[in-house]
Every structure is written in structure tokens, then in C-alpha cells.
């Protein structure tokens, strides 16, 4: 099963919007995360509904942050992108007649629910600004060692960070 990249992609976009690109059009964002602008509009629409971004049509329009990254948590973004499944493992989809499988499924389900609750609690404690500061620390380290095109702070050069 392929990984769901919506959360990491939108976190990436929010940090670029805060640090480099404001406003950002759906086309610009689609190039950042290598996807279709229609997909971008769908994901950004979830962020807009949660009050994380705003949008403006027309010349000079695009997506803008509605609040500072210090006020946005990983959990906010996770929920805005549709709260995708956190784990690719788990019990079978169909109930089984086998008592062994039922026991296994019940234990797996309980353990996964507990793990998900802990992970979501952690998501609620991490601000997107924390990730942006981590980016800046990495940028400083890379710049000290010569850096690359992205190290210069030019998001139009490369979007593969």
C-alpha cells in the first residue's frame, strides 16, 4: 500500500509559503510537490476550511497563510487533509469465524487505537513553526558547507526539499 503524502506535502507547502512564497498559486504549489494543480486546490481547500490559509482569485491572488505557523499544529494540518490512516497494518476488513483471527484482530485494533491516540497527542504538541525552525537550522548547516541552490533561499530553483 503506498504511503499517503498529503500531510508531509502540505507541511512542506506551508513552510514555503511562510518563508519564501506569498501568495502562492496552485500552479506554483503543484510544482513544489510534483502534483496536479487540481489536487493542490483540493488539499488547500481543506486548509482553508480549517482557517489555516485563505485564497484570493485573480491577478496577484493565490494562497496565503491565515495565521502564523506558531498557531498551527501538525494535528491541525493532519485533520485538514482528511485525517488519513496513520498505519498500513491492522486487522482484516471482514469479520472472521476463526477464533484465533478474532483474538489477533482484537489485540491489533486495541494496540493501534492506543498508538494512534498517542501519535495524535504528539501532533497536537508540535507547531509547524517548529518544523520551519528545523529547516532553518539545516539550511544554516548546509550553507556553511557550501550549500546548494535551495540553500540560497530561492524556492524557485528547486522544490525537492
State the gist of this model.
With 161 residues, the protein is mostly helical. Helices cover 53% and strands 5% of the residues.
Kindly describe this structure:
The structure is a single chain. With 161 residues, this protein is mainly alpha-helical. It has one domain (6-144): Orthogonal Bundle (Arc Repressor Mutant, subunit A), CATH 1.10.10.10. Helices cover 53% and strands 5% of the residues. It has helices at 6-19, 26-32, 37-49, 74-80, 99-125, 128-144; strands at 53-56, 62-65. It has a two-stranded antiparallel sheet with strand order 1-2. The protein starts with 5 loop residues before the first helix and ends in a 17-residue tail after the last helix. This is Transcriptional regulator, BadM/Rrf2 family. GO terms for molecular function: DNA-binding transcription factor activity. It holds the Pfam family Rrf2.
